[in-house]
Amino acid sequence: MTEAVYPVPQDWAERARVDRAEYERLYRESVDDPDGFWLARARERLDWIAEPTTAGDWSFDEADFRVRWFADGKLNAAYNCVDRHLKERGHETAIIWEPDEPSEEPRRISYRELHAEVCRFANVLARLGVAKGDRVTIYMPMIPEAAFAVLACARLGAIHSVVFGGFSADALAGRIEDCGSKIVVTADEGRRGGKRIPLKRTVDQAAEKAPSLQTVLVVQATGADVPMGPRDRWYHQELLQADDDCVPAEMDAEDPLFILYTSGSTGKPKGVLHTTAGYLLWASYTHALCFDYRPGDVFWCAADIGWVTGHSYILYGPLANGATTLMYEGLPNWPDASRIWQVVDRHQVHTLFTAPTALRALMKEGDEPVLATSRKSLRLLGTVGEPINPEAWRWYHEVAGEGRCPIVDTWWQTETGGAMIAPLPGATDLKPGSATKPLPGVRPVLVDEHGRELEGEASGNLCIAASWPGQMRTVWGDHERFFQTYFTTYPGMYFTGDGCRRDADGYYWITGRVDDVINVSGHRLGTAEVESALVLHAQVAEAAVVGMPHDVKGQGIYAYVTLNADASPSEELHGELRAWVRREIGPIATLDALQFAPALPKTRSGKIMRRILRKIAEGDTGGLGDTSTLADPAVVDDLVANRVRA
Ligand code: WT7
User: Fold this and answer.
1) Which of 45, 301, 314, 468 allows an S-S link to 310, with CB 3.0 to 4.6 Å?
2) Is 515 a pocket residue for ligand 1 (Cβ < 6 Å)?
């Protein structure tokens, strides 16, 4: 089989700061002298109150396990994203905000305006009692105030925890309680695809289950009539007393910057903690390198700030680099499938960075909505979140990008802070479906199930052999879980949870998660999380959840549910359980298939055999493999006979 290879286009070879030889040189330098390499990057990319004299201080071994970078440096992340740009580009646009409703006017916020907004927001928070080290939960729609709130926390040295606006009251309450936030920043309502999202109402419901919560700061976004109680404060009223200036807090490099909750293979989401200097450097470095960012380029990362992609590539990376970043309130395909390209034309977007699931959804609508737009401003296209199928890759490249824009497929995770394996547009020939090669400073390793390192062309489990500045530092409140989750499967290495193939050219091809995590529309969901939600229902005795192939979402959710003896399967119960899980977790957790199962396949020791459940969900009922270790092999026949099609 011959693989298609797309060489670096001529214009990119000429424009890009990093060409093939320079990539090779940087990579070698980063491996030969990591500390020198990172100290140089840290000094050139960030403004310091006190420059660091040391770079990495880390060990992945149990005995002296630690991850620290630039430990004696002092800085402020908001200063780096805002203040330091004032002199040279104070009047240039920092944020372009595109509203959900296409007939409304966009907003353009200059660096100078951003500075004033962030200072005022920080002063409001400070007056409400927020101090260095406090946790602030941000549950916001995609409006500029969300960006102000995030940067205001960074300015004060408070730790933000952004919770995606699509999460349920229960999910929000769990995240507020886990990190002990006393304050939530929210809006009356959000808007997405013409729909209203009752954020304040959801916070009120969450508050009942989150006793740590004392204050709710409400931004007026839609003007909806929302009840305001004793703990609630309107942002616009608090603003009346807020000063325009706020001194950025002096932070240690290793002071926490934010917590972001993400699903793992056990029930409870983990609070991934990132610290100030290492994370900010990683966001800035990868944004500059992967997208070859140049002043004047309009950069659009079409994610939500509730995910790490939004943190690193709507806010911290582009703003640290003085870029113009586009923040879009709505959905790529609303009011119609042309919208994403109309936004590109309206704001003359240079780089578009989105997820394969969005591309697959758009592709389904045919080429017309794309061809109805110009897209002449586009020079670079990026993807993130899941493996991109070559068909979607080619459509993105040929139809959306008219064959002229390289596709930067970035592999990374919430835990890594930013891109790790990705092509550089001026240096790397592309192969559709491969995230290509590691960035300088990243040392991927493939290991077999015994932890033996595999050389050359191979398939195995993807680990990272050495720390990098953007690495997460701990799981909030559970350092032991951090170590256990990532460093015990293959001792001495960070284990990503992904399977991966390396081809003869040293290109990496991510094959997907090898743990009990599924990737639904580029969002991570733990199967255990969905199972816990299901068994909370009074009529459910037991549940097992696995991923199944889905042509738009990448993976869909397949649930096997065993009911209590006094309950029986029905259409109503089916609908009720779907609604139940959505209410417990959020609409991301919409079951794509639900099969009522009289029993689940278990080993004699009572362990559910997920391998079999996965095969049935995939429709691969011919290859179930060895079922002889099951306590009752007949269970499988019933499951196969009653398999549900999504
Ligand atoms: C998991 C991380 C990265 C930010 C958004 C998701 C999968 C991510 C790719 C890619 C193949 C990818 C992996 C990874 N993934 N990007 N380009 N190619 N797989 O962050 O929620 O932390 O999920 O997403 O399985 O482990 P996340």
Assistant:
1) 314
2) no
